[in-house]
From TrEMBL:
<dbReference type="Pfam" id="PF03732">
    <property type="entry name" value="Retrotrans_gag"/>
</dbReference>
<protein>
    <recommendedName>
        <fullName>Retrotransposon gag domain-containing protein</fullName>
    </recommendedName>
</protein>
<feature type="region of interest" description="Disordered">
    <location>
        <begin position="121"/>
        <end position="190"/>
    </location>
</feature>
<feature type="domain" description="Retrotransposon gag">
    <location>
        <begin position="7"/>
        <end position="73"/>
    </location>
</feature>
<dbReference type="InterPro" id="IPR005162">
    <property type="entry name" value="Retrotrans_gag_dom"/>
</dbReference>
<feature type="compositionally biased region" description="Low complexity">
    <location>
        <begin position="129"/>
        <end position="145"/>
    </location>
</feature>
<dbReference type="InterPro" id="IPR032567">
    <property type="entry name" value="RTL1-rel"/>
</dbReference>
Amino acid sequence: MRRNVLEMTWNDFIQEFNDKFYNRMAMKAQQNEFNNIKQGTMSVTEAVRKFDQLARLCPHFVLTEDERVRRMLDMFRPEIAVVIDSGEKPPTTVAECVERALRAEYRLAQAKQERAKLFEEKKKEKSQLKQNQGNQLNNQGNRSNPIGNHFNQNHNKRKGNFNGNKNQKSHPQKKNITVFPTCTKCGKKH
C-alpha cells in the first residue's frame, strides 16, 4: 500500500519501511536469539560484540543502561557473572560491567593455568614415584637372587636328588652334600 509521503507520520513511515525491508520471521528469530543469548564458549570480547550486534537489532529490549547491564550479566557464564556482581556495589554502566567481566575472565584463565600446571606436576611426581617404586622392587629382587639368570642355568647342575618322582621306593638314601656355585656378583656360594 503506497501512501502519500507528505501525509505520513514518522511512525507510519517506520511501519511502511519495516513492512517492506524487514522479514518478520527473521526479526522474530533475532529477538529470540537476543532473549536467549549466553556466553557459552565465547570469550568476553566475542560475547559483548554479539550482544551489541543483537541489541542494535532489538533496541526496544534495552531501553535503559540498567536494562543493558542486567541483560549482559544474564548473558555471561555464571563464574564470570558472580565476580562481576560481587563487591561493594554492582556495576551501573555497560563499560563497568565489561571491564569487570574482562578482569574476571583474565583471573579465571590464570587460575585454570595454575591448576593445569599443578596437575601436570602431580602427574609427573606420581610417574616418578611409580618408576622409583618399580626400581626398588627390581633392586630387591636382584638382592634376593643376585645370581639372576645364572642361578637358573646352574640350578640343574647341583648335586643331590631333587627329583620328585613318586614311583621310587621310599627307603633311606645316602645324603648327598649340595655344592653351590660361587656367585659372580657377590662372591658367596648360594
